[in-house]
Prior knowledge:
- The protein has helices at residues 14-24, 60-71, 80-85, 88-97, 131-138, 161-168, 222-239, 269-272, 274-294, 306-325, and strands at 2-7, 30-34, 50-53, 75-77, 105-108, 142-146, 156-158, 176-180, 186-193, 197-202, 243-251, 254-259.
- With 336 residues, the protein is α/β, with parallel strands linked by helices.
- The chain folds into 3 domains: 1-80 and 268-303, Rossmann fold, CATH 3.40.50; 87-101 and 182-262, 2-Layer Sandwich (D-amino Acid Aminotransferase, Chain A, domain 1), CATH 3.30.470; 104-178, Dna Ligase, domain 1.
- The chain has a 4-stranded parallel sheet with strand order 2-1-3-4, sandwiched between helices. Strands 5-8-6-7 form a 4-stranded antiparallel sheet, sandwiched between helices. It has a 4-stranded antiparallel sheet with strand order 10-9-11-12.
- Strand 9 (186-193) and strand 10 (197-202) form a beta hairpin.
- Helix 1 crosses helix 9.
- The radius of gyration is 23 Å and the shape is globular.
- The protein starts with a strand and ends in an 11-residue tail after the last helix.
Amino acid sequence: MKKIGILFGMENTFPQAFVDRVNEKKVDGIVAEAVSIDKVVQGEYMGYDVIFDRISQDVPFYKGMLKNAAMSGTAVVNNPFWWSADDKFFNNALATKIGVPVPKTVLLPSNQHPDGTEPTSFRNLKFPLDWEGIFSYTGFPAYFKPFSGGGWKHVYKVSDPADFFSKYNETEQLVMMLQEEIQFDLYFRCYCIDRKDVLIMPYEPRNPHHLRYVSNAGPAEQKLLDLIRDYTIRLNNALGYDFNTVEFAVRNGVPYAIDFCNPAPDADVHSVGQANFDWVVEAAANMAIHKAQIHREGMNNLTWGQFVKASVNDVMMSFDGEQKKKPKSSKVKSKK
């Protein structure tokens, strides 16, 4: 029997709906349930072929457990190794390399030194930074937000340098990034599941949270929607996320990817709406069933993005080339 588990926290609607939908499909030899943990022993299989992770970003113990499960062959959604390494600034940098428009963004050191460091820890960092060049690049108004993490925590809109420095003083040890504001005509939030199924939803980030999926914008042109779908799949294939959302702000007909590091996005029926919720539950159930069906016992069943796979291939090709360059050893006959 193939077992699919979902790992979750305070969510009340999506996890049970996901379990119910998988089991309703009555796929021979596949069952879904909430993950149950009574101990985590190094290298031991936990009994799940697939684990759908919705909470480890907030619970470090779960992240360690999922990495251990993956080592024993569990297909974890999303890949816990990559999720641990990823951040929003890297996402933006990667987008520039795969042809997806993003706002102009700059990474900044934390306002306060990290614990355990001294001023001499920052000998390679110029002081002051080139603030004039940074502000000229991003412009104002701009958004100031953590380079890693989710939600709207510690996100500021800054209007000028004085406003920026005032907010900077509030961020303590957070590593932040300053990002150009895209004054948009249209805005979309897109679910991407299994790196191929895309749901494009009109979205209004300026509304209260429970009304953000209510938009007064008219219907978008199909050409624009097709481009957004292409960008969404392109980003998730590069990153290797099987469950993610991508947000786009459309300015002068150009969709800019604003936020696409959301591997545990909101999927509550009360915020996304019934129709969107039903789509997500169905697509997630189909993805998990497929992963259970192709699961290989004791093997690496994680999804890896094109960025990582290309890097590995480059290393292997380089290693192979170096091996071929080495002269073959020759035997020297000893004189009698």
